[in-house]
Each structure stands twice: as C-alpha cells, then as structure tokens.
Specification:
Elements lengths: L2 E2 L10 H4 L5 E4 L2 E4 L7 E7 L4 H13 L4 E9 L2 E8 L4 H10 L4 E5 L10 E4 L10 H9 L2 H12 L5 H10 L7 H7 L8 H11 L2 E9 H11 L3 E10 L2 E7 L5 H14 L7 E5 L5 H6 L2 E5 L3 H6 L2 E3 L5 H7 L3
Helix pairs in contact: 2-3, 4-5, 5-6, 8-13
Length: 327
C-alpha cells in the first residue's frame, strides 16, 4: 500500500511501523514497497532528531537530478537518528547540492559504504579528531610560546604551510621546555565526544581501530592504553636531560605517511580497501581520507570541508558509527 509523505510522522525514526519495516521506493510524492533494480549510490541522513523536513529537502534535490530513491532503513545508532537511502545514480556534484539544503542535519552521499558485518579498519587523526585539543598548542602555552605556535598550527591545518615544515618550526619553538609538560597535558586531555562509543561499537563489530597522528607518541600511546586501540603512529620529540631539544626524531608522520599507513594496516590485517574508513580534520588528513573507502572530515577546516568525501559538522564521532551501520 502506498503512503503519502504527509501521512507519515514528523520524526523519521517513527516511520518504521508505518512502512512495515520494509524497503520502499519514492514515486511521485509517495512511498510504496519495492527495491531499486540497481544501486549506484547511497545517501545517509543523520541528526540528533531527524525530521521529515530533512528527508523532504533531500528528496527534492534527488528528484531534480532525476535520481530514483529507495528508503532502505531508519534507525537509532549511538543515540543518533538516521535514514539510509539507496540511489539509482550518483555523482560528486550531489554532495554539494545536498549540503546546500542541510540546515540542521549531517549527511553522507557516496558511491558505496563499508559493510558493518565484515572485518574492517578505522584509521583516525588524533588532535582535534580523537581528542578536542591540539597537543602541541597546549605544550606551547605551558612553555610560554602559545600564540606563536598556535598560529603555525592553524596555517598548517588550513593547508597554508607544508605539514613537515610547520611541525619542525613549532617543535623548534619548544626548545628548552621541561619535558614534564607532556604529562601535564596528558592529564587533562579531553576526548572528542562520541570517541568511546565509536571504539566500543567498532570492537563489537570486530573492526580494527588505529591512530595516525602528526602529533606525538606519548599522547597517542595514552589513548591506545585507555581505549585498547590496535595501533598508533605518531612523531617522537627528542628529550635530553629532562628538556625538549626542539627536534623531532625520525620520519615525520605527514599526509603521505598517513595514507600509506592506512594501506599498510589494511594489508597487514587482510582487510580490503572497500572496508576502510579514515577520519580527520586538517589538510594533512586529505590524502588519508581520499585513500579510504569512506573518508570522513570531522568539524573540519574550510579546505577539508570542500574536498573531503563526507563531512560531519553537527554530530561527532558517534556519527561515523551510524554511517557504518546504515546498511
């Protein structure tokens, strides 16, 4: 039996009973039972409370593009509501068109999504992604060079400076600082909202979870111990006689390194790239986001917002779990 849109509840998660928990096709202003014969793309809408208006606005964009739509699921994941749609066609331009109408919800419009019921890998940035701070800025503030270092950090994350150059400049400014500052910052390091829910959900799915950070090893290892992460990769600050020397030891974890780490970890665990997710916020994360099957920019800088496959601006890391369970 067909259902008119205006007959359905204002809250999308309440549509389950009305639609008899079955897939439905959108045709000429109403839903009717059925499946698309061929799926070329997926659209997921997410919000704390997902309204019918979010779906209406998205359907108008899809109708104008001549795309047929199948509503495959509505669900609550990690306390957030989502609607999952299959699309008869997909193009990169769809993301921009849908973002223009997204007033109070997040979305992902992609050719495909990883499957939650198969092994997978999530690789995430640390500073301003897994945690709410930039650790080097916090160290610099305690060392009395906060403003100088923070300015370079902003330029690097916005893509105005090569990451390796920016890191060496920032670390050089820390020369002579007491290494005890590192433990002080670790002691007050705030997790990003949704991080614990994401990691717990991924572990329940049997997925691998790792960090690739342009930050520093002590902070990444603290998170690994706290959350039980499978691996962490970060930079090493040189310390002599209890003081920071202003040098970084070894190769820097830059944009290329992050993308390579994703490929190498996937290969190590026998995980296809189609089952990988990358999460980050800065320009140095873009190659990693592009390398993964699903690249998610979290509360990202403008350049990253433009180039990332998926942007989460209203939800936090729990939204990634929603995307993975949307199928």
């Amino acid at each position: 039996m067909a259902l008119l849109l205006n007959e359905l509840p204002e809250r999308v998660v309440e549509w389950k009973d009305a639609l008899a928990q079955q897939s439905c096709l959108w045709r000429e202003g109403e839903w009717e039972a059925g499946h698309l014969p061929e799926v070329k793309g997926r659209l997921v809408l997410l919000a704390e409370r997902l309204s019918k208006q979010a779906l209406v606005a998205s359907l108008q964009v899809l109708d104008e593009a001549g795309i047929r739509v199948e509503l495959s699921a509505v669900a609550v994941v990690a306390g957030r509501e989502l609607a999952s749609l299959r699309l008869s066609a997909w193009s990169p331009a769809l993301k921009a068109a849908l973002q223009q109408v997204a007033t109070d919800w997040d979305l992902a419009c992609v050719p495909s999504l990883p499957s939650a019921d198969k092994p997978g890998l999530v690789l995430m940035d640390m500073d301003s992604t897994a945690i709410q701070i930039e650790c080097i800025d916090e160290i610099a503030a305690l060392a009395g060079v906060g403003e100088e270092v923070a300015a370079v950090t902003r330029a690097a994350m916005e893509g105005a400076l090569p990451f390796s150059e920016s890191l060496r400049r920032r670390v050089a400014a820390l020369a002579g600082a007491d290494a005890g500052i590192i433990d002080e910052v670790i002691g007050r390091m705030p997790l990003m909202p949704g991080l614990t829910e994401l990691v717990a959900g991924l572990k329940a799915m049997g997925w691998k979870v790792a960090i690739a950070s342009g930050g520093f090893v002590p902070f990444a290892r603290h998170l690994q111990q706290q959350l039980g992460l499978d691996a962490v990769f970060a930079n090493t600050l040189e310390i002599r006689d209890g003081k920071l020397t202003g040098e970084v030891l070894g190769a820097i974890v830059d944009a290329d390194a992050k993308a390579n780490i994703l490929v190498e970890l996937a290969h190590e665990h026998g995980i296809p790239i189609a089952q990988t997710v990358a999460i980050g916020d800065g320009a140095n994360d873009l190659k990693m986001l592009a390398q993964a099957c699903l690249g998610v920019a979290l509360h990202a800088k403008p350049l990253v917002q433009q180039q990332a496959p998926v942007c989460l601006n209203r939800l936090s890391l729990e939204g990634v779990l929603g995307l993975l369970q949307a199928r």
